[in-house]
Write a structure and sequence with these properties.
This protein is α+β, with helices and mostly antiparallel strands. It contains 23 helices and 16 strands. The longest helix is centred in the middle third of the chain and has 48 residues.
């Protein structure tokens, strides 16, 4: 709505203004107050509002969020149901909008997995039971997006021996850019111990000692255990599509129970390895920073790299020129057909369901491979030269080498075990898809894919007669409308705080202002975490979803996050900048293995940089320079 206003310009001397006179009358104040309250409710957070009265009419000129509150962390936890949310590494697994079925399945999986983790590290059953509210709420979903409940992550870490020193390692793995300080996370653990008698405390202590010893031994047997775990997954998921296609409703429910009890509850190998990755990567980074005073980040990224050590070769076999292309393609789809862009989201279409993306990537890679590409540098030679040139004594050099060796070993195993996670999620997806067909045929839902707007409890509640509201079509209709709204909303900050009930119009406070955001607007410089060395210059392309937006050879891509399915895209890239992530995120690991210059953790990169901008970035320092070509040409 456009309105034209005629203003009578008038100059008033300050001394003519009576500062004791009433500016607004009671009705005007009441009207203004009502509008301010309604605007805050509309945007769900405090607002900085500019307003004016003209001819007895109130005009709201501007409203924007207030994000500069100083937060006292000690006070935060005293408020009713105060939670700090952070998208950390969870955005890599569940980016963008995530539907209810995926969230409910993932939330249950996280609960089971981290209870197992507590058992592995020797936590007593009594404390695990006391910690149930923590394990049950590691994740939350707000405006259709999944976030880590950061306070509960810190509480869970207290169960780990040497917890305070492991805080930093956990933050590196989660991609937490700003640790929470001044908050007493130990309250839960202290309360738990109060409920234990002396004998139980002694048993708990001895159990932790025993668990620590077995975790240490696990370092030497993890390869064998991981191999047996992969065999167990394969045996229980082989030919599952054919089996599922023949199952009735009851059999599908029983098969899902098998999935939970035999697979999700046997995830201790993967958890143990993740813990070892966290610890040894943290140790190797700490030693590198301590022993090497200059370019420590770059050197650590080179030393930790495993180029040519088979970390991702199984995903690249199809990208070779071969006359038996169809045979290779079918073989690839049989093995990796359950992969998808955003593959842990049950609603995502797999490569089998939508092979167009795979074929486009193969075509683009064939064009690139036909050109003379630069030879890959021998990373092992570079690593040997670094060790040779480091001016430290033999003992320190041995410590650094052994920490790098174990970090590499466990990272490699983690990537293999991540693929097993994809297989299990794909199995769950196939079960729910088949149930969706039955629900459609029974006229309970309109479309088989509508099942993704239901939760696991609702689906099995229909089977077990334990659901209250049976008008599922109406529920799905409401959720679809809500999700259409979520898609239009600006995403919530990377870190924010909520209080009280989290309903339709919940209050949140942006906490990203406390993060270290390095951006020099005058010089057009940005800073992130350097992951893979190399200087890159060129036009950029901002990509949200590689399946929907074309990526071509030698593109410099900026994105919010990546997931394992991006492995098909990586060989095309000239450079990569990721808004969120850590040195242990998938984008960091794969870019290092393929020798692609990359930077992660560049706050607001997808907002501050746009497709067509010309930049230069250094993967060794994490510095990005946006270049004004018009200004440069004039100079």
């Amino acid at each position: 709505v456009k309105q034209n206003f005629d203003y009578d310009k008038k100059t008033i001397k300050l001394e003519e203004i009576n500062d004791s006179s009433e500016v607004l009358n009671e009705n005007e104040l009441k009207k203004l107050t009502e509008n301010i309250i309604n605007i805050e409710k509309l945007y769900s957070l405090p607002q900085d509002i500019e307003w004016a009265y003209e001819n007895n009419s109130l005009y709201i000129l501007q409203s924007r969020p207030i994000t500069t509150f100083k937060t006292n962390n000690n006070q935060i936890l005293n408020d009713s149901n105060t939670i700090i949310w952070d998208n950390g590494n969870v955005i890599e697994s569940f980016p963008e909008i995530t539907l209810p079925l995926t969230f409910s399945f993932a939330k249950n999986a996280y609960t089971e997995v981290y209870k197992q983790f507590a058992e592995i590290i020797g936590v007593s059953k009594k404390i695990i039971n006391y910690y149930n509210p923590v394990f049950d709420n590691m994740l939350g979903i707000l405006n259709g997006r999944i976030y880590n409940n950061l306070i509960n992550w810190y509480k869970m870490l207290l169960l780990v021996p040497n917890a305070k020193k492991n805080n930093t390692f956990m933050e590196q793995m989660l991609g937490v850019t700003d640790e929470l300080k001044g908050i007493n996370f130990e309250e839960n653990l202290t309360d738990a111990y109060k409920n234990m008698n002396s004998f139980e405390k002694f048993l708990s202590f001895t159990k932790k000692i025993k668990a620590g010893f077995f975790l240490f031994l696990n370092m030497f047997f993890i390869n064998y255990r991981a191999k047996k775990f992969c065999q167990m997954i394969e045996e229980n998921t082989k030919n599952n599509e054919e089996k599922i296609a023949k199952m009735n409703i009851s059999e599908l429910k029983n098969y899902y129970d098998l999935l939970e009890n035999k697979l999700l509850k046997k995830w201790n190998v993967s958890i143990s390895n993740d813990f070892l990755v966290m610890v040894w990567f943290g140790i190797s980074k700490k030693l590198t920073d301590k022993f090497i005073k200059t370019n420590a980040d770059e050197i650590h990224n080179i030393l930790i790299s495993q180029k040519g050590k088979d970390i991702i070769t199984e995903k690249k076999d199809i990208f070779t020129k071969n006359s038996k292309f169809n045979e290779l393609l079918n073989e690839y789809l049989d093995k990796f057909g359950n992969r998808a862009i955003y593959e842990l989201k049950l609603e995502s279409l797999t490569l089998k369901e939508n092979p167009i993306f795979l074929l486009e990537m193969i075509y683009s890679l064939s064009l690139k491979n036909n050109e003379n590409s630069k030879e890959e540098t021998d990373i092992s030679t570079e690593q040997k030269n670094i060790y040779k040139d480091i001016k430290i004594n033999i003992f320190k050099k041995f410590l650094l080498k052994i920490s790098i060796f174990y970090a590499q070993k466990f990272i490699k195993i983690r990537e293999k075990l991540r693929f097993q996670r994809t297989i299990v999620f794909a199995l769950a997806k196939n079960i729910f898809k088949k149930i969706g067909i039955y629900l459609k045929n029974s006229n309970i839902i309109n479309n088989e894919r509508d099942i993704f707007y239901m939760t696991t409890n609702e689906i099995f509640g229909l089977i077990n007669a334990s659901i209250i509201d049976t008008n599922i079509k109406k529920i799905i209709e409401i959720r679809k409308k809500n999700y259409d709204i979520y898609k239009q909303l600006t995403p919530l900050p990377n870190r924010f705080l909520t209080k009280g009930f989290i309903g339709e119009n919940f209050f949140f406070q942006d906490l990203t202002s406390s993060e270290i955001i390095q951006h020099d607007e005058k010089k057009n410089l940005f800073k992130g975490t350097p992951c893979s060395k190399g200087i890159v210059r060129g036009f950029i392309k901002v990509i949200a979803n590689p399946a929907n937006e074309k990526i071509e050879k030698d593109d410099i891509v900026i994105t919010k996050s990546t997931d394992p399915s991006w492995v098909m895209v990586f060989p095309l890239l000239k450079g990569l900048i990721v808004e969120v992530g850590s040195l242990l995120s998938h984008s960091a690991i794969i870019s290092r293995e393929l020798g692609i210059p990359s930077i992660v953790g560049v706050s607001n990169a997808t907002q501050l940089l746009k497709t067509g901008d010309y930049i230069e970035f250094d993967g060794s320092t994490g510095i990005i320079h946006k270049i004004d070509l018009k200004k440069t040409s004039k100079e």
